Amino acid sequence: MADQAPTLPPSGERPDASFTEVDAGGGGRFPPRGRPVINGINRIGLWSLYIKEVRRFLKVQTQTIWAPAVTTLLFLVIFSVALGRGEREVLGVNFPTFVAPGLIAMAMMQNGFANSSFSLLSGKIQGTIIDLLMPPLSEGELMTGIVGAAVTRSLAVGFVVALAMLLYPGVSLAMAHPWAVAWFGLMGAGMLAILGLMASIWAEKFDHNAAVTNFVIAPLSMLSGTFYVIENLHGVFQGISRANPFFYVISGFRYGFLGQSDIGDATHVAWAALGLLAFNALLAAIAYRLLKSGWKIKS
């Protein structure tokens, strides 16, 4: 039987308002132009973006995951030899055990920043950013996919660095408060992942990204109490350290292992945990607005 032509409404009658075009095969009709087909969360698109970003750093995992473990282990060896002689104890434990959690958290944060700061920037430089802007992904989904992949890399680096730390004599990674290890690790990774996304939005070339890494991220990481307790600093510098959000990530993460930290008792640690959550929410809101505006992305 020959295919029948689609039946049109009688003269003077309006077609169904919900459809304006007829499928070429005659079986169904399309919604009008401008009406979104995907409602709610585009789960398939979000998952595809996340997997794409994860596969990107897994393809060079020697550089993105294993190399940070070697570098961090060298930090531990150097500072333990330089500052840990004579069975020096800090917060009631030997120096390698004291410094190990801080080095793990620092490696997680730095690699989270490195991963998310490369995503949009590489697209802008190579001219492939259209591949991220054209798919039916909202600004929130785009941010979630990029930040989620960066946090995944941070966690992978954290596990690998922790395994490397266990190879060093005298290091103990027994956890006194596992919730603090998980919470502050995620908060630190998320914070740097969002900052990396904001940096990639602003940067126009790799030099700009390197400037943020060298003049902002690295100093804040090194001056966060990773290698010392801030009680040894002058009062003014203690105040400066307490204004550094990296300090709360490092100290809270260390509290999860040692049961002690520079922040204070358990109440102060809990307030620091909530403060980091609020700070990350603020950063996420700013990053979302930047993506929504299209600043330095769509222009």
TrEMBL record:
Bilayer-crossing regions: 65-86, 98-121, 142-168, 180-203, 210-230, 269-291
Name of a matching Pfam family: ABC2_membrane
Compartments, record wording: Cell inner membrane; Membrane
Keyword Transmembrane helix: yes
Residue ranges occupied by any ABC transmembrane type-2 domain in the UniProt entry: 59-294
Membrane-protein topology: Multi-pass membrane protein
Region (Disordered): 1-33
Keyword Cell membrane listed: yes
GO-annotated cellular components: ATP-binding cassette (ABC) transporter complex
MF (Gene Ontology): ABC-type transporter activity
Annotated InterPro entries: ABC-2_transport_permease, ABC2_TM, ABC2_TM_bact-type, ABC_2_transport
Keyword annotations: Cell membrane, Membrane, Transmembrane, Transmembrane helix, Transport
Entry-linked PANTHER family: INNER MEMBRANE TRANSPORT PERMEASE YADH-RELATED, TRANSPORT PERMEASE PROTEIN
Family from the record: Belongs to the ABC-2 integral membrane protein family.
Name assigned to this protein: Transport permease protein
Organism: Qipengyuania soli
Lineage: Bacteria, Pseudomonadati, Pseudomonadota, Alphaproteobacteria, Sphingomonadales
